[in-house]
Structures are given as structure tokens and as C-alpha cells.
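Dear colleagues,

As part of the handover before I leave the project, I'm documenting each prediction I ran so the next person doesn't have to rerun anything. This entry is a single chain, and its sequence is reproduced below.
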Amino acid sequence: MPETHPGRKGPNSLLRDLVAIVIGIVIYAIGFTVFILPHGIVIGGMTGLATLIYYASGETIPVAASIFGVNTLLLIAGLRFLGRDMVMKTIFGFTLLSLLIGSVEAYFTSHPPIVANTPVSLLMGAVLMGTGIGVYYSHRGTTGGTDIIAAIINSVSEISVGRVMMIFDMTVVALSFFLPFDGDMEMRVQQRAQSIIFGWMTIFVYSYVTDRFLQQGMQTVQFFILSDRWEKIAYRITHETGRGATIWDSRGYWTSTPRVMIMVWCRRPDMAMIYDIVRQEDPDAYITATNTVSVYGNGFDPLLKRRPYVRSEK
């Protein structure tokens, strides 16, 4: 089976991941703060809980402060269930998100929304949030929140994490019904029911966008490469993409000419690099690429006893 390059990621790859994580969090923060928060809609996840706290406190506790504070408490509670790498990424993620939201939320909550039409604004915000989550999650980034809860649940029980998180998200949105309101019960029901439906719809949209993004980015591709310059191609693939290459001897049926075949498994974002390497080394090489259902093992998805948890919303 294809081997995985034993070396660690190079500095350029780590830098690309860091830049992508920052970009993803920035996109997420823009989607939430610019297009969702000004309309007073409570969504799921940690940002939704922070929004709930903001309005329940009479708009005195900033959303950014709640995101940072609650994440810190969750991190302390789940410290023994998290590895050092996740702890560092979580601290970086929720700190950056808190700073970004905190730097602009006062402006956007005190001015009319940029997009006055609520459904359109929520749709735009949800698309941006889903895209941002997909970008930083695909580069192994996290902003904490439900990821910490997921790690704790995975460590102490067999309860479906996805189900628990869905219940959590729906409950956070539903609790917005009890936020302070000027009016009788009938008016409260009419207005809050609409905002709750908007919140649930927003969750669905950004979760869908995130899932689509991750499915594209996490798709595994299998390459077969036939070239007389196989040694140079295999060397460059292994050292430049971080992916392993498996070779074996083959023979053409018609000519009986011995050839060397290369097989490579990679993620879809790595495809362009492999194509470039083959084209640069041997423009006459034969190359095929096919999608695979799944690849488990070192460098890909872990082969777990329980179904792996994939959380697409923070």
C-alpha cells in the first residue's frame, strides 16, 4: 500500500496552513458580525450562545467577551481530554475570533444593517460563515466552542456527538424566545417565532456550505503515473507535496517493455502540484486520476472503532 512521507510538514506548508486559518476566521467573523448580528438573530454554536448572553444582559456584555470567556472555561474543563496541539490551536482560534468580532461589533450593533432585508442578509452571512469554517477547518484550525465539547464527549461516552451538538444548537436558538421583549405574549410569539425560524435556517445554510466545502477539500484522489522518469517524479512528489509514492514493476502487453508504475494518494488540493511535477519532468507521461471513497491510515483519516467525528460548525 502507498507509504506516507515520514517527515514533518515543511515551514512553507505550515505557513500556508496558518495563513488559511487566519483568512477563514476573518471570513467567519465578517459573515457573523456584518450580516447576522445587526439583525438580532440568535444562531447556534458558541457565537450564538454569546449573542444570547449579549441580548439577555441588555447589550452590556459584548459578544466577543462571551466568546473568549466561555471558550476559556470550556478549555479549562476539557484540558485533560485535549492534546497539546489542539490546545494551542484552540487558544489561537478563539482569541483571534474574539479580537476580530470585538473590534467591530460595537459599530455594527449601533448602526443600521448594511443589508436591510433580513433573509438576504442572513443568507449572505451564513454563506460567509460556512465558507470561513470550511477554510480554517480544512487546514486543521479551530475556534474552540463545540469542538471542545465534542472532544470531551468522545472521551467519556458513546453518545452521538453530532446529535448532542444539534440539540445544543437548536436549544440555544430556541432560548431566544425568552429574551427581554416589549409587548404582550401574542406579540412575543409572533416576533420570536420568526427570529427562531431564521436562526434555524441560518444554521442549516452555513452547515450545508461548510459540509460541501469540506467534502471537496477532503476528497481523496488516487493517481497512477507511468513514466521513464519515474524516479525523479516520485522523489519530487514525496519531498514537495508531503505525500508518499508506491512503485512497482510493470510490463506493457503489446511491446513487453518493462516499465515502473507510480501510485499516489492525495487530497484534492494537492492535485495541481502533482500534475505540475509530472508535466515538468515528463510531458509524455501517462497519468490517471480517480476519486476514492475513503482512505484510512497515516496522513489521511484515522481508522477508528467509532465513527469519526466531523464538526462543521463552531
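The two ends are 36 Å apart (CA to CA). The longest strand covers residues 258-267.

All the best with the project,
I.
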